[in-house]
Amino acid sequence: MSKVAIQGNASGTGVFTIAAPNTNTDRTLTLPDEAGTVLTTAGVPASAMPAGSVIQVVSTSGTANISSTTLVTILSLSITPSSASNKILVFASAAIDAVVSSNAYSDLRIKRNGTQIFFQYAGNSGSGGGNHSAPYGFSYLDSPSSTSSVTYELGVNKSSGGTASWATAGSGYSLTALEIAA
């Protein structure tokens, strides 16, 4: 027969009480046959989450009309990883509008704490009249190796060609960072 032992903490001064609910029904609480933390209404601590779990999500969005040939930061957000071994999954989306006959090309960039970590070349080209709009979305799995606040920035620019602008006609941008347990 297995035994149940309750072991106090020598440095603690509080009283830990196990209370039964007001019920007329018999209940059985079966303890798992493994070491670990009991789930409570306070939730599971980030340190107890299994690998691949989403620990936290930070997101921002906005609109702007950018036609600059120099890099313009359009969105930024900060996230503080709970463990230096955790990853940050960054999602970004934007839309480019270009005059099709002008062969316009643009860039999207992600910076972490001011340093570029991701680059995507976004081009619109062709012949004929009218405008062309294309959505761009991408993800990047980052390893910041930090428990300090990390700032991610989404930047865009028109790198070459004719008429191009980002997020015109009411379209917008979004930037999302997810902390993923290692």
Q: What is the CATH-assigned architecture?
A: Sandwich
How many strand units? 9
Give the low-confidence spans: none
Largest sheet properties = 5 strands, antiparallel
* Total helical elements: 0
Q: What series of H and E elements makes up the topology?
A: EEEEEEEEE
CATH class categorisation: Mainly Beta
The number of domains:
1
**Rg to the nearest angstrom?**
26 Å
Approximate shape: elongated
The helix content, as a percent range, equals under 10%
What is the strand content? over 45%
Q: Return the structural class.
A: mainly beta
Description of the molecule:
The structure is a single chain. This protein has strands spanning 54-62, 72-79, 87-99, 104-112, 115-124, 131-142, 150-160, 164-166, 173-180. 19% of the residues are buried. Helices cover 0% and strands 46% of the residues. It is built from no helices and 9 strands. The protein is elongated, with a radius of gyration of 26 Å. The mean pLDDT is 80. Strands 1, 3, 6, 8 and 9 form a 5-stranded antiparallel β-sheet that branches. It has a 4-stranded antiparallel β-sheet with strand order 2-7-4-5, with no helix packed on it. It has a single domain (50-180), classed as Sandwich (Jelly Rolls).
Provide the fold topology.
Layout: E1 54-62, E2 72-79, E3 87-99, E4 104-112, E5 115-124, E6 131-142, E7 150-160, E8 164-166, E9 173-180
Antiparallel strand pairs: 1-9, 2-7, 3-6, 3-8, 3-9, 4-5, 4-7
